[in-house]
TrEMBL record:
<protein>
    <submittedName>
        <fullName>Capsule polysaccharide modification protein WcbA</fullName>
    </submittedName>
</protein>
<dbReference type="GO" id="GO:0000271">
    <property type="term" value="P:polysaccharide biosynthetic process"/>
</dbReference>
<dbReference type="GO" id="GO:0015774">
    <property type="term" value="P:polysaccharide transport"/>
</dbReference>
<dbReference type="Pfam" id="PF05159">
    <property type="entry name" value="Capsule_synth"/>
</dbReference>
<dbReference type="InterPro" id="IPR007833">
    <property type="entry name" value="Capsule_polysaccharide_synth"/>
</dbReference>
<feature type="region of interest" description="Disordered">
    <location>
        <begin position="20"/>
        <end position="45"/>
    </location>
</feature>
Amino acid sequence: MQYSWQMAFSAPVSRTATKIAGREPQAIGRLPTPGSEIDHGAADAQREKVKHRITPKLQRIVFLATTASGTLAVATRRMLALPTLRACLPEFQRLCHLGSPRARHAGAVAGWGLKPSTRKAREHADRHRLPYIAIEDGFLRSWGLGVEGHPPHSLVVDPLGIYYDASRPSALENLILAAEHTSEAELARARSGMQQLRELRLSKYNHAPDRPLFDDDRPRVLVVDQTAGDASIPGGLAEADDFQRMLESARAEHPESEILVKVHPDVIAGKKEGHLLAAGQLPGCRLIGETLSPWSLLDAVHCVHVVSSQLGFEALLADKRVVCHGVPFYAGWGLTDDRRHCPRRGVPRSLAQVFAAAYFGYARYANPYTGQAGDFEQTLELIGDQTRQQRRLAGRWVTYGLSSWKRGFVGDFLGDGTAIRHLRHNKPPEGAERGERLLCWASQLDSAAEQRCRERDHVLWRMEDGFLRSIGLGVDLARPLSLVVDSLGIHYDANRESELERTLNEASFPPALLQRAARLRERLVALRLSKYNVPGARRLQRPEGGRLLLVPGQVETDASIAHGTFDIRTNGDLLAAVRQANPEARILYKPHPDVTTGARVGALSPGDERLYDLEVGDVDIVDLLDMVDEVHTMCSLAGFEALLRGRRVVTYGMPFYAGWGLTEDRHACPRRRRSLELDALVAATLILYPLYVDPGSRRLCNAETVVALLEQRRADHHQPAWRTHLYRWYRNIFIGKH
């Protein structure tokens, strides 16, 4: 079956860019020998046969299938299981394993790069005259390592070669050659992307510790070793001896500098072989064998020597001088000091042009937790949030007073790289060692336990439900998708500062973050999402009359009432105050869902019905927020959700969203000394403060991922399961209201 491809660029392809093919894409199964010379005259003749589809706004190579098959045969089942593979290959309707019967009808074959393990897949493609598509991890891959189960957020898809193999053309090389046509808007996007990578200190992998290495300003040079067998070494037209020559060059060219030799940790551990393990014995050389963030290394040096490591490109992003002793994808464009040359390149390109080609045009992005395709910026936000929280939470934890149900998921929210020890529910915090971080559920921490923690120098952290929690109520044991973990206080306690309050008081909110918050806010409103996302049993038409007010009831024994209110602490008192201040308004009262199910305290006293016009406990909170003009509340999260929808909000307590100039407040908090725009409040409350977890992988994610998951879950959620009804019966009889 014939399967042809066209290559679509963002602009007409230059004369230089057309002199690189050497063969039609269909014949890529027959690979040239590494290091073989390319006949440029034959390349010109062959290239004339390849038609270019000009698409001004496309910034990547697009594969256009001309067969009805639409099936891609994938070399290994491990590749086929990647959760982002399908989203990164929208050209294909079906993916199958190369060994399956369906592979007989495939129009192309895919394998992992051009490594020896792909030989059978490439031979199959060559034998059946099918395109071979090389797939590899992208340049912004994930927080953790693939060998530790972290799926890729980015893949590169190449029908010509692969970016690390300079012995033949690749789609990335073509894109860089054609980069003279990159639009100014795309270059501005590239400059912004590079700046964000620097500010967030992100790399291909982001699990390594990021810390200063030295406290002096001695000049230092970095020499980057690679593991033996790395395919990018021969692909970079280099060999093992080039590493020793690189080290000798670095020592000779920088006699006054300390030479830092970065070797892989597995080489130090004896699990793999490297090339420069003995360098630590040389005068003026220091071996760096621990796992470290590339940015920690780059902060310490003024020059970087590489053979073909991607660390060299990240050094360019860090504005370091880079010397290439092989031919990585970023060499040959005038950005690096090249000791080896590739005749196909040699045209000057800016760093922004190369970055745009590699990160926007060549790499493809998808969210591994939702399976949805994405882009560079969305992936940057997700991995950036994961990395920020992982670095914040890494270390040892002791939990105190958590139920067995909460112990089952709290570890997910603390992330990888943590060690957790659980104290028994009734065991006092003296069971923790002095100085350990002690984590408790905020509403269950009493003052006596808090005092004992202070006496023993425990760093006390408090945990509570997040603001985009679940489909279903926590009291019904619906597992949360979001929690908050706070080292200062907790967001609902107005008597002390919390991490959220400090962020709102002190943080800067750059335009990119505010724009992200605005998109998130608009998405929440459009999808009609709230904290619990419990659907209402009936729809309500807006009552006729004047101003329509919503008063959301609260659980009167809740910790937010105890710590976030002043003179008004019951639902009845709140209704009385609202009615007194608004005698002509129509008031809707919605009891708290936990009160409605009989689990918590907060029912009105007899006679309080006269204080409102209509009870709407069985109406969806989102329907009500869309309908009313104002929300009057003690400290309910419904007030925050009303702000998202542009409603006037009057507070009778001091919730976290009050005191910033966005609400009309009956009380003041002197600590809150700043007026904020709504999207700054959204950014701090929904992006920076909470922790989010994907329930499928049980890994940290971000707000946008949880919004997509809630949307998917809500489509499958109708009525509470029989287990929920059974638990409610048990709870109401044996536990009672609390």
